Amino acid sequence: MKRYMKKLSCALLALVLLLGLTACGESGKSGVDVPEELQPYVIPWEKDVIAEAKEKGTMEFYFMASLGMDVGAEGSTEDPQKWGDSCLVVFPDGTTMLIDGGMPKYAPVLLQNLKKLGVEKLDYVMVSHQHNDHQGGLVFDGVMAQMEVGKVLYNGVLNAESTEPKRLENFIKAHSLDSQVLVAGDKLSIGGVDIEILWPNKEEVGQMYDNATDLNNRSVVARFDHGDFSALFVGDLYKAGEADVIAAAGDKLDVDLVKIPHHGHKTSSSNEWGEAVSAQIAVGTGYVGLPTAQYYAYTKQGTRVMMDYMDGYIHITGHSDGTVDWEKSMERESDFYAGLDKNAGITW
Question: C-alpha 286: how far from its chain's center?
């Protein structure tokens, strides 16, 4: 799966991101009035992503996380907290799905991002696991409270560390939302795309875990297939969880696009994982950064690695013939990983 159709990336500097300008001549819905305090963090593109996907018959992925915004709790004395996962997926027929929603404080930015992309309702929301950097921007007073949602997909594994372990379930009930618990073996067909759930096992539903490792290793692992193009979303799997999924799913992990587990943290992305997914592109969000060993786990397979703290907002297009286009909202000021990219035959 090493076929590339490189799309010229947008030569946008951080200043352009701050100004919120439209990139690469893309046009779409205009006139989104972004509050001044949110402008440094909001996606720079204005598009009608639903119309684009339908016109091209493609899968579109917009990776959107905190991108430098401090999303920590109010009054926190800790270092600025800049993590979280969220990705908008648009299917070939225009169906929309939001996978995770970042931290609670990110919700206003996420809502603005969706507006700038022309999304007024979400057909599906998928929650990889119940940590606040994945579900926080959805519940509380988040996206699912302020935007029409068709159906919520989640794994039903509970976070015992939370003050409200069933926060997501209670939110779904309070808002009378349609929902489905996902377990390994489930298969869905959405918008012309086949989705197979590879993890967690059904025995985990309703179980409650009181540490991050156990909860992260029960993240939803979902494979998307659109013709010859494939994508994999894996939440916050740690290396032990990766090993379990490799043993359970085998060749089903070999895809064109993979969401890097646990924001690129050294807890994850083993050499065995990089080899198993053998992706064209790996995308990480959450501003943690990617240690050299984990970066090389992908690049030595010829995988192009994109991280939001270096590349800004990241847009991936998956074509049914297996080719992939990409664009990003920022140019890398310096590339610590340039040598590893060169060794892998990748140039920016």
Answer: 10
**What is the C-alpha separation between 323 and 286, in angstroms, rounded?**
26
In the DSSP assignment, the letter for residue 117 is T
The CATH code that applies to domain 14-21+44-71+81-231+313-331 is: 3.60.15.10
Mean pLDDT for the stretch of residues 95-113: 96
Instruction: Tell me the pLDDT band of 30, cut-offs 50, 70 and 90.
Output: low
Q: pLDDT value at position 75?
A: 60
Q: Which of 240, 309, 301 shows the shortest CA–CA distance to 261?
A: 240
* Whether the model pTM is above 0.70: yes
- Pick from 41-55, 65-79, 131-145, 186-200: least confident: 65-79
Whether the link from the prior residue into 35 is cis, omega within 30° of 0, is: no
d(CA 95, CA 317): 15
Nearest to 114 by CA among 141, 87, 154, 83: 87
In the chain, where the domains are located: 14-21+44-71+81-231+313-331
Contact 103, 137 (CB under 8 A): yes
